[in-house]
Amino acid sequence: MAVAGSAGFGFILRVPKLTPALGVVISGVFFLACGAASCNSLQEASTDRLFVRTRNRPMVTGRLSRRAAAWFSATMVVLGLTILWLGTEDRQTLLLGTAAFILYNGVYTPLKDNSVFALFPGGLAGALPPLIGWTAAGGMLTDSRAWLLFALFFLWQIPHFCMILLSHHEDYRAVQRPSLIIFFSNQSLTRITLAWIMAFIVVALAFTLDGNQLETGARLSIALMAGILTIFCISLFFKKTTQNYRFMFLILNGSFFSTLLIVALLQLHAAW
User: Fold this and answer.
1) pTM reported for the whole predicted model
2) What does the alpha-carbon distance between residue 209 and residue 176 come to, in Å, rounded to a whole number?
3) Rounded mean pLDDT, 186-210
4) How far is CA 196 from the centre of its chain?
5) 206-215: buried (b, 16+ CB within 10 Å) or exposed (e) per residue?
6) How many whole angstroms separate alpha carbon 56 and alpha carbon 53?
7) Contacts of 168 (CB under 8 A, 6+ apart)
8) pLDDT digits over 98-112, tens only?
9) At how many degrees (to 10) do helices 91-101 and 66-87 cross?
């Protein structure tokens, strides 16, 4: 739902109107994301059983067969891509959807077993849905605002992933799989995560400079999010230790997605 919502946000940022095309892109990306996620679970069933947080997933416990998962995944991916193909005029939308699936399931997932740098193609895959919405609304990829949108979602992906590692650090250290949590202490990885969040804040603030794209309330909402995250980062930076990693996770994701929702609603209201 979050992936589909980010595609909807990209659409609304380009065309702030509730149109059938908006519903098409949200539903297409939703089904595609369902297919990609279930394919990921199918690919990682053997390693999921090693982690406490994933050992109760349906394919690990046998509640769901690999064959059923494969059929479901294939059906969802084909359905999602078909909706994007038939429901949108710009073929860039279909190409971006295909690229996101290939990056996530063809590059990111297999690479996780071999390199800590797998999070970068994973971040790229997670940053493509807003561009899917942008192009579906008639936006061009040559527009600098499209890549600013892409950068915003990419920069959010990295600390999001790092906070998952920190929240389950004992689990990830117990399983010898390439991971940043193995190479860095919790405190060091926290500092690295904060650096990525600060980069995310800089890109978010860049959106507030464009008065032609966003109305005043939307820009103020983004500035408020940036302020909250900045204060949070500064306070956390000077702490010698921190154990409340789940709270860090909630602060980042809660402030980001609530701001996206507020901005989308304000943009729709201004154009009503």
Assistant:
1) 0.90
2) 45
3) 90
4) 14
5) ebbeeeeebb
6) 7
7) 51, 52, 53
8) 999 999 999 999 998
9) 160
